[in-house]
Amino acid sequence: MKVIEHIGQMQETSRALRREGKEIGFVPTMGALHEGHLSLIRRCKEENDTTVVSIFVNPTQFGPTEDYERYPRDLEGDSEKLRSLGVDILFFPSVEEMYPEGYSTYVEVEGLSNHLCGLFRPSHFRGVATVVTKLFNIVMPHRAYFGLKDYQQALIIKRMVRDLNMDVQIITCPTVREVDGLAMSSRNQYLSESERRSATVIYRTLLRAKEALERGEDFGTVKTLMVETLSSEPHVKEIQYASVYDPESLEDLSQRQREDYSGSEVLLAIAVIIGPARLIDNMLVRLRD
Amino acid sequence: MKVIEHIGQMQETSRALRREGKEIGFVPTMGALHEGHLSLIRRCKEENDTTVVSIFVNPTQFGPTEDYERYPRDLEGDSEKLRSLGVDILFFPSVEEMYPEGYSTYVEVEGLSNHLCGLFRPSHFRGVATVVTKLFNIVMPHRAYFGLKDYQQALIIKRMVRDLNMDVQIITCPTVREVDGLAMSSRNQYLSESERRSATVIYRTLLRAKEALERGEDFGTVKTLMVETLSSEPHVKEIQYASVYDPESLEDLSQRQREDYSGSEVLLAIAVIIGPARLIDNMLVRLRD
User: Fold this and answer.
1) Chain B: residue nearest A107 by CA?
2) What is the domain-level CATH number for residue B169?
3) pLDDT, tens only, B109-120
4) Probe site for chain A from B54, B139, B163, B170 (most A CB atoms < 10 A)
5) CA distances from A132 to A127, A138, B251 (A)
6) Which chain A residues have a beta carbon less than 8 Å from that of B21?
7) CATH number of domain containing A256
């Protein structure tokens, strides 16, 4: 595995690969790799000639009071995992080279960024859209892979790619879960043993909400059920959101008639604070006709 | 000359050119081509294998009260000029395809966009940065050419390309002038005969300011001289700005000591309203040590 730390060298490498007619697949990550990341990388390897993985804890997507400093970093363990998967290139740039003095350009996807996580993490998605644009321009991939655990992120990146006519295909992959259903996340490391047990309430809430939708409950009832289920768990310090959403516009549907969505998909999505960790999860459910 | 109207076809063409190892040069325009544009195109032809010119009057860079509707459009005359110069591809997309329903992604270069024209045309440079990003992603050029008459635009695009790591070289070219010194602009067409004569005051003001700087006048005095010279012309309805600026930060230097800029370049820049036209011009002047 080649490790590249400099932007210019990565661009030169990608230019050369493209000249040779190689198809480049790309998995951008913030490191602290878990099975969710690895599933993206495996799919990427299957579909491309060259697989590039980036590890970059991107400061512009963290708020001033968030966990940028303590976000888990484990380059050695990550490198070992990437090597054993047969990744071709690890791109590992520095913050100083990604955001040099005088840096001032940002990409913003309006509308979609003002729902769900965007309400609680102002400028988070601006940071995401900006760094993904930069990484695409540096790595020049044919295909890029994103996990659906970050549903809103994947939706925003697809919209950005479409709007800005970026010449890259976005491929989204299913959420990978622990045996007890907890969605894999680098932030699960923040949890104590008892918090970790509590965290399963997120997936249980999604399942209960799905069942409720399937037996015909209306959206308002489902939202109430979700909030109640989450609240029953003492380690849940805050429910940032928990409801039924339009999977394209991310509009909260709890005041809307479920008849308008017959035969369509809706999104169940949750963000909660458990102990020191902000955890998110979601599930798409198709309503019967 | 091949005329391409659709984004997908342009991208397919550029991909094929790149696979063949051809270097693509690109001149983005809003049409109503004059000698300024043609000088960019000639330089582009000299330095690249394939020359692509776009004509797109970009709605997102016009304010609601500005001249988007009446901006001059002359596809037939423009095509004739492009053909006679030996341009390879004219890219002529529709507004509907560039900004489809639900369009919501914008690129913003902070700081630089809040000076000079940015003060009088809020969101103008956001529109410029966004459409240039889109056009670069569609045309995939190795080099792109911009005129220095729009100095602030060229500076913002260079900053954007650097910040977002776009793999394109930005080449800026000198302002082309009429015999009497008026900078060529598609908007000069808006002027009546007497307004057209008045408009030469812009270039005369730049020359007088340059002489004043060269004889050692301080920045405040030069600004006053510029405003007085412009005001003396009855057709000048409004002076939006006229002063000495830092050519990198665009800061107004009229309150600053000229000793701090000994041996450096400063920017003289003007925006005025004459009759129905908003006209801009500028000049770089190197101060003696």
Assistant:
1) B107
2) 3.40.50.620
3) 999 988 999 999
4) B163
5) 8, 10, 31
6) 19
7) 3.30.1300.10
Q: Which residues are A281's β-sheet partners?
A: A270
- pLDDT tens profile A112-135: 988 999 999 999 999 999 999 999
Q: Domain range holding A193?
A: 186-283
Residue A288 lies in a domain: no
A108 → closest Cβ in B106, B160, B166? B106
Q: How far apart are CA A73 and CA A89, in angstroms?
A: 19
B235 by Cβ neighbours in 10 Å (0-12 / 13-18 / 19+) ranks as middle
Residues of B in contact with A107 (CB under 8 A): 105-108, 164
- How many angstroms from the chain centroid is the CA of residue A19? 31
Distances (CA, A) of B220 to A227, B182, B223, B225: 64, 25, 5, 9
> To the nearest whole angstrom, how far is the Cα of A236 from the nearest Cα of chain B?
35
Domain boundary residue, one of A137, A152, A173: A173
Q: How many helices (H) and strands (E) does chain A have?
A: 10, 10
Residues A37 and A147 in one domain: yes
Residues of A marked as catalytic: 37
CA distance A248 to chain B (A): 11
The mean predicted confidence, pLDDT, of chain A is 97
Distance from CA of B161 to the nearest CA of A (A): 9
* B221 and B168 share one domain: no
B175-225 pLDDT, tens digit each: 999 999 999 999 999 999 999 999 999 999 999 999 999 999 999 999 999
The ipTM value here is: 0.96
Distance CA A258, CA B145 (A): 53
- In a shared domain, residues A225 and A109: no
Instruction: Considering only the beta carbons, identify the residue of B137, B165, B167 that sits closest to A166.
Output: B137
Amino acid occupying residue A52: V
Instruction: Give the pTM.
Output: 0.97
CA neighbours closer than 13 Å in the CB half-sphere of residue A264: 14
Establish whether B37 is a catalytic residue. Answer: yes
pLDDT score recorded for residue B282? 98
